[in-house]
Amino acid sequence: MEIYLLRHGIAEPQRAGRADSERKLTEEGREKLRLVLARARGAGVAPSLILASPFIRAVQTAEVAAQALGYTGEIEKTDALVPSSSSRQVWRLLRSRAEETAVLLSGHEPLLGETASYLVGSSRVCFDLKKGALLRIDVDEFPTEPCGVLQWLLTPKLAAARP
Q1: At what angle do helices 111-119 and 87-96 cross, to 10 degrees?
Q2: Domain limits for position 120
């Protein structure tokens, strides 16, 4: 399975009296996501399933990804991707969807960075996914503990660079 971890794009700042889960993407955040996802599509990224945190900015990020990557399925919201979740919960979710060929997860830091470390089998490796960054890890088997292989990490800054 190809596992794509996509951190949500730049979102509105936190405001008093408004839940963090209600923050929306900014236009700048959408533009940077589109750059990353256009490069990803050019590299052949084609998810068979998109899962998202139910937080608005993560759902909007998943919607941008679906459009950019030609995904026509339904985006599934899951509490396994909320900021307070754990990498073990994400792994259990992935194991339950082992029949999928390529899964894109739209979520938050530090959960996605911790999940990347967990998926490659190391608590000593640190991943810092910038807003709008996309990371690919491949997993061939689904034992109790994962043993994935990091394939690449694409940041908005790298996606915007000229070849």
Answers
A1: 60
A2: 2-160
